[in-house]
Amino acid sequence: MFNSHWRLSQFYFFYFASLGLLVPFWSLYLDSLDFSSAEIGQLVATLALSKILAPYLWGWIADQSGYHIRIVQITSLLAALCFLPLLWFQDFWLIMAFMLLFSFFWNAALPQFEVVTLGLLGSDTARYSRIRLWGSLGFIATVSVLGVLFELISITWLPHILLVVFALIWLSSLPVREHRQQPETLHRIGTVLRSPRVIALLLACFLMQASHGPYYTFYSLFMEGLGYSRGSIGLFWSLGVLAEIVLFLFMHSLLTRRGASFWLTLSLALTALRWVLMGLYSDVLWMVLLTQCLHAASFGMFHAASIHLIHDFFARHRGRGQALYSSVSFGVGGVVGSLYAGALWDYVPALTTFLIAAAIAAVGVLVSLRVGSHPARGRTGPHD
């Protein structure tokens, strides 16, 4: 079991290491190519755009075939190959085209790996958080090292470093054994999707990620404009993920005390507070540290609660359930967040943009209350 857990952990480490490169530094790389804020917002949105369709399409294939890890291996390899041309292209439309192609495969891998992880854990799903924290460690490793490295070398090296990490993602998926599941029929998932609790959950997930638009797209540029060095900015990102790791270590005991829907609502409330504080006090160091610690709620608590709820609600359709979670939240929510942030950033104060993000998260709080308010129709148990 230890070897199995270690193999799962390696994949999370490298996958989120790639996010540690893309999320904080991709906008800085695009800025070095002299793209405008609106263009940067559009290109960052491209990374999320394919999450709308790709995860569900690949989830459908995985559920029909029963081969989830095979899908992870294929899409991870194709993602690395499709990213290769970005080492040379600097034209806006060519970058957008290959980012869309690359992300179509890259975004497909993680939801199916979540299915494999939870399937291999069986009834011991509470151990998920301790495996998933290795992803957070991967994020911290890259964002900390690269924040300092890009003080010494040009950020134009970013695509080359990313390609190496994408290759490691594919290699780390190869030793993971398949957790074969019975292929599923399609018509029954409609009953799950009509459940008011499921609708509320997916809407809350969308609102959470839409609220992250200014943070994921412009936080590094925002902090650089306030006079912080790239090394310091990298450490700020690392602090947020370190707080997320601490949360993951305790999430098992938290979930045994209160239901996942409670932690979902709390995470949205704390996220709304985070964006308000970020907009008002990012020039005050101790407030920067506090807002980054709140990442434990806005990602760690939210993600762990959402994964458990999806795993429960979509008991016999988990490939498509995890894919829908990714599509609706990180896909549609990510696209909407990046686009409104990009459209507003040059025309209104940063505070206004962050207050809009806080309002979106606050609406998510109200929606999330419906997740635990009444029973789900057509629900099957988590271990059916």
Q: How would you describe the overall organization of this protein?
A:
The chain is mainly alpha-helical. It has a single domain, classed as Growth Hormone, Chain: A (Up-down Bundle), CATH 1.20.1250.20. 78% of the residues lie in helices and 0% in strands. It is built from 16 helices and no strands. Helix 9 runs parallel beside helix 15, helix 9 packs antiparallel against helix 16 and helix 12 packs antiparallel against helix 14. The radius of gyration is 19 Å and the shape is globular. The relative contact order is 0.17. The C terminus is likely disordered.
Instruction: State the total count of DSSP E strands.
Output: 0
Distance between the termini: 23 Å
**Beta-strand content:** under 5%
Tell me about the largest β-sheet.
Answer: none
CATH architecture: Up-down Bundle
Low-confidence regions: 374-384
The rough form would be described as globular
What is the total domain count?
Answer: 1
Radius of gyration over C-alpha positions, nearest whole angstrom: 19 Å
Contiguous helical run count: 16
Overall mean pLDDT score? 84
The CATH topology label is Growth Hormone, Chain: A
Q: How would you spell out the order of helices and strands?
A: HHHHHHHHHHHHHHHH
